[in-house]
Amino acid sequence: MALLSQSKLGLGLTVFITIKTNQHNSAWSRQFQAVVEQLPGVLEVHRLGGEIDYLLKAVVPDMPGYDALYQQLIKADLYDVSASFVMETMKHTTELPL
What is the pLDDT of residue 1? Predict the structure, then answer.
């Protein structure tokens, strides 16, 4: 496995996207999964317990890149979408605590 430089690839903006849905059924879930699977900038998708239903981590070149991702994401018929943009990464590792 190779680790590539996000900034050298022109993907300078990391965004965490929170999603709420008002549709908790398998048909919607399949539609949502189909949408996020075809978005190359989306690195992680987590279904959560609590107020937020899904948390996504994505990388994009810039704000227009995020808007393009957002326009594709909302095809999943979402109730609420919010984004937080990373200003500084203070720690990042893929090493598991063994």
Answer: 73
The secondary structure of residue 21, as a DSSP letter, is -
**CA–CA distance, 96 with 72 (Å, rounded to integer):** 33
Contacts of 30 (CB under 8 A, 6+ apart): none
pLDDT tens for 42-93 read 999 999 999 999 999 999 999 999 999 999 999 998 999 999 999 999 998 8
Neighbours of 77 (CB within 10 A): 12
**Residue whose tokens read 């279904």:** 47
**Residue for token pair 């239903």:** 53
For residue 85, what are the CA distances in angstroms to 15, 91, 94? 5, 15, 21
Residue type, 43: L
